[in-house]
Amino acid sequence: MRLATDAMLPGARGLSGPFGCLNEARYGIVWGAMGAARSCLESALERSITREVFGRPIGANQLIQAKLADMLVEVEKGILLALHLGRLKERGALTPAQISVGKLNSVREALRIAHEARAILAGDGITSEFPVMRHAANLESVRTYEGTDEVHQLVIGRALTGLAAF
């Protein structure tokens, strides 16, 4: 399609303009996925303290505490990665491959956390009383748009090897 010169993105050459927009969206997803993960963790933590089985909170069980601890570790790592990427972005040193690392990791881990939170919540985990299933559904769609896991793996692979596989 032919467009008038004034319809072109200012300063964009080739696909750099649209890909620049994608990278901005992908960077935002890094933070958003961690927000969803934190919400799921908070729901599971709250419920583990208030839900009693056999006369005591389920949070008093080692398995539940181990799950909560693992969830917290992944949330904290994801937030630290997002912060690191943000600092690179502020300096103008953030690369597309680094953004791909952030999106791929954040969405993957947020989904794992949502699934663990749903398991801790048991039957309550599928109700609208808790935000876990809503976050899980949203994260599944986020996993697909702005580049699937496989696309980000190829971006990272190209950065590692110097060879394009797509």
Automatic annotation (TrEMBL):
InterPro entries (alphabetical): AcylCo_DH-like_C, AcylCo_DH/oxidase_C, Glutaryl-CoA_DH_mitochondrial
Acyl-CoA dehydrogenase/oxidase C-terminal domain span: 19-160
Keywords on record: Flavoprotein, Oxidoreductase, Transit peptide
The organism's place on the tree of life at top rank: Bacteria
Listed SUPFAM superfamilies: Acyl-CoA dehydrogenase C-terminal domain-like
Pfam family, one: Acyl-CoA_dh_1
Protein name: Acyl-CoA dehydrogenase/oxidase C-terminal domain-containing protein
Taxon lineage: Bacteria, Bacillati, Actinomycetota, Actinomycetes, Micrococcales
